[in-house]
Specification:
The protein is mostly helical and 61 residues long. Helices cover 66% and strands 0% of the residues. The longest helix has 40 residues, at 2-41.
Length: 61
C-alpha cells in the first residue's frame, strides 16, 4: 500500500508542476503579445540615429 500512496503523491506533484509550467508559458506569451501590440500601436519605428555604426574592424595600413 505504501508504494501505491507514494506513486499517487508523485503523480499529483507532476500534475501540479506541469500546470505551473503551463501557466508560466502562457504568462510569457501574453507579455510578448502585449509588447508587440504596444509596439504596433506606437508611432512609426524610430531609429536612434541616421549615422552609421563604427566599422567593426580597423582599417588596414
Amino acid at each position: 500500500m505504501y508504494e501505491y500512496e507514494m506513486q499517487q503523491m508523485r503523480t499529483a506533484d507532476l500534475i501540479r508542476r506541469a500546470e505551473h509550467e503551463r501557466r508560466v508559458r502562457e504568462a510569457a506569451q501574453a507579455r510578448r503579445a502585449a509588447r508587440r501590440e504596444a509596439a504596433e500601436g506606437s508611432a512609426e519605428h524610430e531609429s536612434h540615429s541616421r549615422r552609421f555604426r563604427r566599422p567593426r574592424f580597423a582599417r588596414a595600413a
